[in-house]
Every structure is written in structure tokens, then in C-alpha cells.
Amino acid sequence: MATVKRAPAGAAVLRGDITVAIRNAVMQELADVGYGRLSIEAVARRAGVGKTAIYRRWSNKLEMVLEIVSDVAGRSVPLPDTGSFAGDLQLLMLIVSKALQHRIASQIIPDLMAEASRNPQIAETLQKALRTHQQAVGDKLIGQAIARGELPEGTDPEVAVDLILGPLYWRLAVARTPLGDDYLEKLITAVAGALRASS
Amino acid sequence: MATVKRAPAGAAVLRGDITVAIRNAVMQELADVGYGRLSIEAVARRAGVGKTAIYRRWSNKLEMVLEIVSDVAGRSVPLPDTGSFAGDLQLLMLIVSKALQHRIASQIIPDLMAEASRNPQIAETLQKALRTHQQAVGDKLIGQAIARGELPEGTDPEVAVDLILGPLYWRLAVARTPLGDDYLEKLITAVAGALRASS
Questions:
Q1: A188 and A156 both lie in a single domain
Q2: Residue B70 domain-assigned?
Q3: Across the interface, do B170 and A162 touch by the CB < 8 Å criterion?
Q4: What is the pLDDT of residues B162-199, one digit of tens each?
């Protein structure tokens, strides 16, 4: 059996801890001041590390933010699999509405979207993360519903995903209007109706 | 008849021209560098005026941007009135999709949304503009469709407006995915179906 040389476990843990501390500091700073005003100094101060600890990992602010955001966005959200399309749709819309009401998400997403409109690298990273997630929703939820005969054969997964995510994003992240008592229930009924009518 | 004292017409026109030049410069700067990095100096340079011309009108950057953006957002977009809900919906979604693909809108809106998450005054101004527009759409389009018997009595205008604006905003301003050939047509069919099923 080949033996593998390892760094002492303590050092690895410490190095990992520092990375976690920096990642959390970046997310907090993004929420508080936004990408434009985020500084390596402030991230280091908040993480309780020296600036060299950051420059050892990333060569500049853009690289640091892109890697951390891709990483956070890429942790795949588990997709609901309740056995029926009605159940999956309800659970997914509940998860999305909770996520969009989270302080960190509700401040970081619009800020990075704004940067994306001026910075092609940020745009590409975000779009890749979004599209991967969108495709997963489209392929799995809509695909399964078609296979079960709950949605028509010709249902367009792109239209479906936009109908599921768009209204909640618009209301919570753009218009920033709180969901009323029976809003979510009405929206779910409407979206289910839309998808049955969509082809 | 009372006589009204007026400034010479030439001066008024010139003053109006300068305001227009400043307004255009603010919108261009917002699109290019965003609110956070926008400076009075750059606006003055782009408008071809002195900084005093700006400070004569507004006491600071926030006040200037809020007044100009409210003004632009407040110019009421004419709502479609084609005589049928299907026609109104189609025309409205076409107008919204064109507007969201306009360079200025697609850069300024996400940027101000991002600022809004950190600045309550910006948030309030934007939300007021958005809600006024949303309510106009809900009251007129949905109200008329209910009156004509094209939508069920209980149709919720808030859910309806979110379904009309959300998917397009999500796709064009967030995921930034181009509309495919028959995307808009499919989305319109789906939204019409959603609204008929929504109550």
C-alpha cells in the first residue's frame, strides 16, 4: 500500500478555519458595503487575519469574490422530490421564498447582479451558477412531472423555471413587497395552472 | 388681467437645457459606473457644465440621483388598451421585454436595486415608483379583464402583476438569457392560463 505524505492535521484544520473565516467575512462585507466598496483590508479585519493570508489564497479582490461566490452558489440546493408535481412545486416555492428573504441573499444577489452588468467575468460566473441551478430544476421537476403525466409533453422547461422563480424574485428581491397571508398559495395555484396551459 | 413677470425666454430654455444635459449625464454615469462610484465631477464633465450648476439644483449626490430617477420612472408608461385581455397582455409583455433589454435600463435598475438594499431612501423612492406602476397595471388591465368577464372575479391583481412582470425580469435582468424564438409567445400563453386558473 502506498503511503501518502500529509501535512500535520492541525495545520490543515487551521488553514481550513482561516479559509472559512475569510469566506464568511467576504459574504458579510458584500452584504454590508457591496462589491464596489469591498476592500481586502476590511475583509482581513473582519476575519481576524492578516492581509497576507488573503493574498496567499487569491491574487486580487475579483478573483477572491468570484471563487467564494461560485463556491457558495454551487453547493447544490437539494431539489424537492415529494412524488407529485403539486408537492414538488409547493416545496420548491417555499424554499425559494425563504432563501430570498434571507438578509445575506437579499443584499448580495442584487449587488452582484449590478456588478455583472459592468463586469463580464462576474456576469459569466453568476450566469453559470444560475443556469446550472435552473437546468437542474427544469430537468428534474419538469421532466419527472411530464413522465408522470402531470404536465403536457410539450411543456417548455425554460418557461416553466422562469414562471416558478420569476414572480418570487420580482416580489421579494425587486419590489421588496412582503408576501401576504395567502399570496404563496395563490401563486402556486396560478403557476400550476400556467404550466398545464403552457403547451 | 393680471400680468405675470417672467424671466426672458432664452434664460429659461438655457436653464432647462442644462437640467436635461445633467439628467442625461446622470443616467449615463449610473449605467457606466453605478451609484457607488458616481461622482458629481464626472457628471459635470459629461454634461459639459460646472459643478456649481449641479450644486445650484441639488445639495448632494443622493438627492440628485433620487430626483432624476423618480422623474424618469414616474413618466407614466402608457398602458395598453386593445379591447381584449389577450391583446393587452401580449402588448404589455412586449413593451416590458423591450424595456428590459434596453442598455440603460438593464444596467441602472440592478444597480439601484443593489443600493436600495443598503440605503432606505433609495429603497423607498424605487418602491414607490414600482408600486405606482404595478398598481396601475393591476387596476387597469386586470380590472378591465374582470369587468369584461375574461378573468374570474376573484383574480388577485398582485399575483397577476407578479406573474406578468416576474418571469421577464428574471430572465432578462437576472439570468440575462436571451429570449428564444417562440419564448415570448409560450410565456404569454402560460401567463394567460395561470390567470384563468388563479382563483
A1: yes
A2: no
A3: yes
A4: 999 999 988 988 888 888 889 999 999 999 888 887 65
